[in-house]
Amino acid sequence: MRLSELLALHRRCHGRSRLLESVGDGYLYLHNPYFRRVRDAALSAGYRYATDDSESYFGFPLIHLDTILRSRKIPYRPSFAALEHLERSRPGFFELRDLRKNRPAPNYLLHESAHAVAFRELFGKPRDVRATLAEDTALLGILLGEAYAMTAEYFAACAVEGSVHDWFFSISSYRHRTPKKKAVGELVLELGLPLVARCVLLAFLLNNFLVDRIDARRFDVLTGLVAPRLRSAQSARLREALNGLMVMDPEFRYDTARLFLTMFGRKRDIRRELAGDPLKLFGEDTGARAAVDRLIQILAA
Fold first, then answer.
1. Taking the domains of the chain in order of start, what are their residue ranges?
2. I want to staple 204 with a disulfide (CB 3.0 to 4.6 A). Which of 83, 147, 191, 242 is the partner?
3. What pLDDT sits at residue 248?
């Protein structure tokens, strides 16, 4: 596909709730149901999207979640104008293949929108976002929010079909791989998206608590919270799929968790901070469980 055709496709996909300045945004809204559902939920929660970056989000996105939640503004780069500039430099010459390695700067709108939606469901609308995130009891909600963003991106990545969709998604998401896509897809057909999505979210929650694999004991607890009557063959396939999803660079995961959590008063010894049993914490928190039910409904709508 020529770049001129890609730009024309982007223009045709523009409409309500879509961002003309973020290349591929309209296409993803129309063709990726998870991207669309999270976007609609974020807009309904009162968030807006803006190219203004007065608080320097793009200087260091990881440290600005509280900024997004406080301002209810999700910044993004005007990547469409950048590609128009490229096309004007040599009309009709450039093709999509020329942009496989050299891509415009990404906009992580799905991830940040999912965080915004999760915060609203888990914490409501507090006056002081930073103080709320710093509360001793906030840890489970913080890491559930991250798990939800990871879950939304995983299912959105699984919904990608075709080279154009894949390229647009590659500049719109942190996730570029879909491990266990076939296995998860088969389980969704058998068990339904809500059940499987809950299991995926809890697997990512364990991952955020620095758990590398789900052993048999933890799996029994997880399924007891979500799906207590699975057949043995289904359980084996589900556990294998969840463990496949949890593969992550442990050093990156540790350093990211430490930096983010210490911003809100946690100790540097992050392993000690995360030493609790996340499934036990989740099982005992009826508010968190109800919030997760609502969040899963958004993905499965």
1. 3-170, 181-300
2. 147
3. 87
